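Morning. Coffee machine broken again, so started the prediction first thing and wrote up yesterday's gels while waiting. Chain of 182 residues, entered below exactly as on the submission form.
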Amino acid sequence: MSDSWRQTMINITDRIFPSIIPSHERVGPAFGNEIVSSLPLQMSLYFNIVYFPFWLYTFVSLILIKFSCLNMLFQTIISVSLFLILMLECTRLYLGVQGNLKEKIPDLAAFWMFSLILQLPLQLLFLLINTMPVERAVQGIMCILLLSQLIFGFVILRDMAEHHKLRFHISQFYSGQHSKTE
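Came back before lunch.
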């Protein structure tokens, strides 16, 4: 009676709280049900999605004020960079949310590469060329969000790849075991 009750409670607890057992102790089909998405990355992406229209409005309105005072080279650089940021930010945030929530490694890797190679230099460029305190504050928040996404994205990408690798190896073991017994 005691062992049966204990096994029932363990089964119920495993269904309700699947992440209590450390991943190295899990084997079999229960291992594949673990969720690997990152809550900190998702929160950072959410805050970036909410903050982006505010950043865009502030940035464009302040650039329009001082656009006529800039020389032609800076006007061109700012215009092209702003266009690139608009296109990249929408794509980058979409890939980040999809990659994190659906645990798609290619989408998450594309998000991380867009963030590191394309978005980070553009955001740092705007942080360095801005002179007004309002511009620096608004751009600083955007850079902090981007850096946090780079850090959280790297960690979750590494963990997700390890999880998928382990799940693949375990599925190979179980599929090989079932084919031998049949």
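The CA atoms of residues 66 and 75 lie 10 Å apart. Going to sketch it on the whiteboard this afternoon.
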